[in-house]
Design a protein that fits this description.
GO terms for molecular function: hydrolase activity. The protein is an all-alpha fold. The protein has 10 helices and no strands. The chain has a single domain, classed as Ferritin, CATH 1.20.1260.
Length: 271
């Protein structure tokens, strides 16, 4: 862990706030109804998801080694800020006609039903989901044109969130490495891989359902809508195709989030 400690320490808790006065349209992501529904579904999942991440790390408060105490505190502060601003954003898109109440209630039930009695499993599930957010953040910041036609305030929200996801992408993982150290290496590896497979199945299934529901609220339903969503996610140049190789890196023995140091993608004004 010591070889990566300098990277862990380079985090900043930014006090960024979204304007509460903006009025996003339904096609707020570059006028694309599919991309707008997908990212609205992601945003709908963030507040409860980030609360779960914070809870998972806090469960190890008494066992956190000294070198991770500051990064864990910064991780928690960043995630709390993300939750606050996405709650605000979700209210704004709600006023634009997206009804997120069913999605939020479903997510609350899902987290409660899938919360493990074992804090180590909750922690590695957090690591797996943090890997998802980090690779999606990398993809977003690597393609600045993706937000070119989006309201500047909304674009700034997603860039800020993505920047901090990159910054803290290894914090939960390093805590997991410390907490799981007593386990045999093969057992650690198997737990990590099996949890990621389950997390991936659940993440894709739930976000697909949420996105399709939001598309239907815009009058986009039936097989054509499902086909458009499938093309957006898995077609040539689709989101999942772009992040697929980085997702697969999780299964490499010896994987660590900082095997790819992508801090250079963070916009200069956020460094």
């Amino acid at each position: 862990m010591s070889a990566r400690r300098p990277i862990l320490q380079q985090m900043c808790v930014r006090t960024w706030r979204l304007s509460r006065e903006i009025a996003p349209a339904r096609g707020w992501w570059n006028g694309d109804p599919v991309a707008s529904a997908w990212h609205t579904a992601l945003s709908a999942s963030f507040p409860r998801g980030e609360a779960y991440f914070i809870e998972s790390l806090r469960a190890f408060a008494e066992d956190t080694p000294a070198e991770l105490q500051a990064p864990v505190a910064q991780f928690i502060a960043q995630e709390a800020n993300h939750s606050r601003e996405h709650i605000a954003f979700n209210r704004l898109v709600g006023s634009a006609g997206f009804d997120l109440k069913k999605i939020d209630a479903r997510l609350a039930r899902f987290i409660e039903d899938n919360r493990s009695a074992y804090r180590l499993i909750n922690l590695v599930a957090t690591c797996a989901l943090e890997h998802f957010t980090a690779i999606l953040a990398h993809d977003l910041l690597a393609r600045p044109e993706a937000l070119a036609g989006t309201d500047p305030q909304i674009a700034a929200l997603w860039q800020w969130h993505a920047a901090e996801e990159i910054e803290h992408k290894a914090v939960a993982y390093d805590l997991w490495r410390h907490a799981a150290a007593p386990l045999a290496p093969r057992r650690r590896y198997m737990i990590r891989c099996l949890v990621m497979l389950k997390v991936t199945r659940n993440f894709l299934r739930e976000r697909w359902r949420d996105t399709h529901e939001l598309m239907a609220q815009q009058g986009l339903d039936g097989w054509r809508a499902r086909w458009a969503l499938l093309r957006y996610l898995a077609g040539p140049g689709g989101v999942l195709r772009r992040v697929g190789p980085a997702w697969a890196g999780w299964f490499r023995p010896g994987f660590h989030p900082w095997d790819v140091d992508d801090r250079a993608l963070i916009p200069p004004h956020l460094r």
